[in-house]
Design brief:
4-stranded antiparallel sheet; Alpha-Beta Plaits; 8 strands; single chain; 178 residues; 2 domains; alpha+beta; 6 helices
């Protein structure tokens, strides 16, 4: 069995796209996944499956959510080692790291788009872009950041979803508990 993390984008935000976690766990179990655990209401699911193809997992979860709840939800699936590698690569200082953010990318953005975004600067915001993640530190917090998920999706032309340091830590902890 392989351990995976599914990250759902845009559910349970301001009363939109409501997906109760108990129903999400049941839905995932009905797909044949085992040891399904959710973390907070924002769509973080740790599970195990014998399936090795991440695209197959993403499509299966996304299609089932659409059929069950009646709306589209982008789903990004990473295996445990990928998430650990992304987490470990965070190069912010010890002081900044606990309040940093990870914008996980669904695919590798085009080099020219990355270069274009890297030329932009925003007061009190610092970011690094890799093939799989944008690492963001905003002095005033994510809620006031100009460089949010929508910004990076628009500029890099890839879908993405963002999690904070604490959530990434907890997801990795849940993986190691399996």
């Amino acid at each position: 069995m392989n351990t995976y993390i599914a990250l759902l984008r845009g559910i349970n935000v301001s009363g939109q796209k409501k997906v109760p976690m108990a129903e999400l766990r049941e839905l995932m179990a009905n797909l044949g996944f085992v040891n399904v655990k959710t973390y907070i209401q924002s769509g973080n699911v740790v599970f195990q499956s014998s399936e090795k193809n991440l695209s197959v997992l993403e499509a299966k979860i996304s299609e089932t959510i659409s059929e069950t709840f009646g709306f589209e939800v982008p789903v990004l699936v990473k295996n445990e080692s990928q998430l650990q590698e992304i987490f470990n690569f965070n190069s912010f200082s010890e002081e900044e790291r606990p309040t940093s953010y990870f914008t996980l990318l669904s695919e590798i953005p085009k080099v020219e788009l990355v270069e274009s975004v890297l030329e932009e600067t925003y007061k009190d915001e610092v970011f690094t872009i890799t093939d799989s993640c944008v690492y963001l530190y905003s002095k005033h917090g994510y809620g006031k950041a100009k460089c949010n998920t929508n910004f990076f999706e628009r500029k890099l032309k890839v879908s993405a979803t963002t999690r904070n340091f604490k959530t990434m830590q907890k997801l990795l902890s849940l993986c190691s508990d399996l």
